[in-house]
Amino acid sequence: MDSLDLVSPYLFSYKGRCFPVQELMKPKDLDALQHVDVRASDIYMITYPKSGSAWMQQILVKIVDAAHPDMEEEADNRARVPFLEGNTLDDFRRERPDPRLYATHLPPDMLPTGLKAKGVKVVYVMRNPKDVLVSLYHFSHSWKMLETPKSFEAFFQDFMDGKVYMGLWFDHVRAYQNEKDKMDVHYVKYEDMLKDLRGEVVKVCDFLGKDLTDEAIDHVVEMSTFKNMKTNPKANYKDLVEKQRYSSPTMRKGVAGDWKNFFTVAQNEYFDRVFEEKMSDLPLSFTWEINQ
Ligand SMILES: Nc1ncnc2c1ncn2[C@@H]1O[C@H](COP(=O)(O)OS(=O)(=O)O)[C@@H](OP(=O)(O)O)[C@H]1O
């Protein structure tokens, strides 16, 4: 194995971001990803972890199925929208019909260079970072590749210091905001999908140039609700629980505002201060809570 710059026994640092020591790619493979074959028809779904990746994977699969009924596949969403930093170097060698869908948590400077050169369409999903933190806290108990947090307090500080999977949330979101004019990117907010899933699906269809009937859009929406995804084995990653790679389902709560059950008043004030310092110059706002 390459010698890794360890941040902890579970994470190594590469180009300023943190990656799990086990299972995913090592620096040499991450570098190789920059040179994979990219097609103009590819569609990329990009997120910071726990921001709605599985949700958008499902939406994209269902949009593509509706727009290209001849190519509807039986595989699950992990195979239909593979994560670049998983084991996709092999995936680029296999035959796949266009449009190929890919997912990634990688920052812009680590993406395949062909994305920009070929004008590939990118859907970037963002979620309010307090709920991202809480979701990642739970995922860190679940995914065997991550260190089980010693306490919420310790995890909170690691998140604020970027000592978590994929590094600082603030850097990731900023980096993609800075790509606005350099990539063909459509931004989606998790909370907007909670408020009006159909409206956001329609915007994604428009961005991708997929002209779906109202009925087809209704079907995409129906198949992408939390309730339906939770019981859909192609969408819910439940096989990873069965294979004991996750100890609990990744479809956990699916709400906005769960952070209120975990943050202390002092943590919330500290978070707000850091958010203001790091993000206030960006034209970005988040919904912190939605009453269900
Ligand atoms: N359909 C739907 N509706 C609402 N919320 C949903 C949906 N699908 C997934 N989720 C929630 O998304 C969180 C997981 O994020 P990711 O899929 O990005 O995780 S990962 O980074 O790919 O591991 C995780 O959030 P938490 O429940 O807060 O942990 C999931 O429950």
UniProtKB/TrEMBL annotation:
Short name of one Pfam family: Sulfotransfer_1
Entry's Gene Ontology molecular function annotations: sulfotransferase activity
Sulfotransferase domain mapped to chain residues: 41-282
Record InterPro entries: P-loop_NTPase (IPR027417), Sulfotransferase_dom (IPR000863)
Protein name: Sulfotransferase
GO cellular component, one term: cytoplasm
Species, as recorded: Champsocephalus gunnari
Alphabetical list of SUPFAM superfamilies matching this protein: P-loop containing nucleoside triphosphate hydrolases
GO biological process: catecholamine metabolic process; xenobiotic metabolic process
Annotated compartments: Cytoplasm
Keywords, sorted A to Z: Catecholamine metabolism, Cytoplasm, Transferase
Signal peptide location: none
EC number: 2.8.2.-
Family the UniProt entry places it in: Belongs to the sulfotransferase 1 family.
